[in-house]
Structures are given as C-alpha cells and as structure tokens.
Amino acid sequence: MKTKILLLLTFLSLGSLVYAQEKDISGNYRGRGGGIMLLPNKLFVLWGYMTAVPGSYEVQKDGIILFKPKKEPLFVVYGQQNDSIGKDKVRIRFANFQHGKNYIRFENGKTYSVFNDNPNCFSSRYVHTFSREEMGNSFSLIADLKTFGFAQLFGELKNTYQIDLQDNNDFLISFQKLSEYQIDGAGALVTKEGYECLLFFNQADVERSKELIRELKKEIDKIPMKELRKVLFAKEKSEDQGDKGLRDFLSISNLEEPKVFFMEVKEGSVKPDPINKDFLVYDKGKNIYKDTLNNIEYYRFDFVQPKCYQTDLEKLKVAPKTIFVSECEKPSKRRIYQ
Question: Cα separation of 90 and 110, whole Å?
Fold first, then answer.
C-alpha cells in the first residue's frame, strides 16, 4: 500500500492465558506468491510482494477462522508549523492521491477534486500552497471508495477525515489505497498430503467465503493440489528459518503508523528515521533539526489525528477546477518532430 501499513512480527513465548488451540495454529503459512503469519495473540499479517497487511483473527467453534485485515486509516496526516511559508498560507504535500478519486473540502464547504479524472502523467511530488483565508481553520479529505472494483467487500468505512489546522500550516498527507489484501476472509486448518495447511479465501463476502472454506475442507482429500494453489498455504516447520529477505522485511514492520517523519529542508526527501537521529540539534528559532555532522537540516512532522465521519458523495458539490492536472497529450494532439 503507497505508505504501506505493516505489522511488527516478534515471536513471543506463549503465556498461561493462551489457549491450546491458538498454540497449534500460530506460525507462518506459505502459499503461491505470499503467505499468512498467525501470531498467538490473535493477530496476523497477510503478506505478498513488498506488501504486508496486519489484522486480527478469531477461531469459531466449528474451526472456521475469520480474518479481519486492517483497513484504516485511509489518509495518514503529519503536520508542523513552518513560518517560512507565511502565517497566511497552508502547504500540503499530497502522496499517492493519484491512485484514487479524492477530494479536499475547505471549512466553508468549497470542495475540489485533488486530481482530474483518469490521471496518467505523474511527477515525483505534488505540493500545493493554499490561502489560509480561503481554507479556514480546517479542511477535510474525502475518498470515493466506489472507484475500487471490490469496494462492496470492505463494509462501511468512514470516507471523510477532518484536519483542524491549530498551529500547523505545513502538512504531509498520504492516501492509503485499499487492496484485495484488506478484504475480510475465512480460513480453516487442514492436512493435505501429510502437510499442515491453512485454507484461506477472501474474494467474496464473509458468509460466502465461510461456505466455500467449509466445502473445501470437507472435500480436501479429493481435490487435486493444483486446484488449491490459490487458497492453500502450507505451514513452515518451526526449525525452518525461511527466506532472510522476507524475515528482514517483516521484522521492521509496525502495526501503527510512524508518529514522526523528518523531511530534508534542501532535498525534500522524507524519512521516519534519518541518519544520526539521536544526535539532531533543535534550532528553536527556525523550528528545524540539524545534523551538524553531515550538515543536513530537517523539518519535523508529527502525526495528526483527524476526525473521521461519513460523507454522502451524491450530495457533494465539487468545483470544476482541480488542484492538480495530470494528463498526457492525446494522440491526435501530439507534436510531430521532423
């Protein structure tokens, strides 16, 4: 996911309050192109190529496992006070907004699309400075979830995030595009050809997924392995260390988004952990942090908790002008060079 939402996978010894059933199912289950890591504390991570989605699971009395991946926040917001912009200005750096249909609404209700429809030419950064007088004391970000073909499988998500400016006038905001990894699913433990395995399916509503898993579990010995490749995950042996690259990737994952980001003043690059982070010197007058060893200055952006609620998009009045226009020349209008 864009800023990816990842889970810290630290194996802990099971305490006395952990049920025996949970002891049996915890572990890493590998499948085609990815896998599912079940932890003994009813958490899991569904992982694939450069993707890891955390969530929680529940084992029902009939052995069916219900999976609820984390779906929110849709927008991750960081802010700071930057006097160099001007107290009458508000600057926003938009990240990944081109991957969905999103709107920005000012305090007075005026609403704009962040991008034009079907954007197809992208730059590395999208930054816009607004007049604070026009914006007011707050702004809201609104996501049109219907643009995703499988949106009906996500349930009711709050599509609006309101950000109160307070002392902030400089923001980093990332849109977290939803993926198929975040659809609720169902699973069950089975034995196939002598291997402990996990059946998992999430390409339908939960009830249909549960029904399919029950059918597969009942007929597991009769179904050829090749027909189960997309839904069957084999449990790794405890002594199997697995792929080092994968383990390193998962070991740095976090359930929560970073609370702080630093941005280089000169280059504009953003990172949660700059070099020599513990030795940064704060310049109160400029509100920047200095790495005196490498002569690098940073802005510090702190996590901002928005107010979330639902907006009826059918009643949304959107201005014809967009914040950004990203469109290649149409074939009929291409320049011809001799």
Answer: 16
Which of 163-177, 178-192, 225-239 is predicted with the least confidence, judged by mean pLDDT?
225-239
CA dihedral 105, 302, 68, 251 (to 10 degrees): 150
Instruction: Say what the pLDDT of residue 16 is.
Output: 29
CB 156 within 8 A of CB 72: no
- Taking the C-alpha atoms of residue 119 and residue 99, their distance in angstroms, rounded to an integer, is 9
CB 113 within 8 Å of CB 318: yes
Q: Backbone phi, then psi, for 141, in 5-degree steps? A: -110, 130
Q: What's the rounded mean pLDDT across residues 174-182?
A: 91
Q: How far is CA 226 from CA 198, 222, 223, in A?
A: 15, 12, 8
Which residues fall within 8 angstroms of residue 304, CB to CB, at 6 or more apart? 77, 78, 79, 163, 168, 171
**Is it true that domain 20-71+181-251 has CATH number 2.40.128?**
yes
What are the start and end residues of each CATH 2.40.128 domain in the chain? 20-71+181-251
pTM of the model as a whole: 0.81
Burial level of 183, CB count in 10 A (0-12/13-18/19+)?
A: buried
Distance CA(266)–CA(92), nearest Å, equals: 17
User: In this structure, is the dihedral angle defined by the CA atoms of residues 175, 304, 127 and 254, taken in order, positive or negative?
Assistant: negative
In the structure encoding, which two tokens stand for residue 331, read together? 């074939």
Contacts of 133 (CB under 8 A, 6+ apart): 88
- Alpha carbons 40 and 66: distance in angstroms, whole number: 15
Which H helix or E strand runs over 213? helix 206-218
Containing 86, the helix (H) or strand (E) segment is none
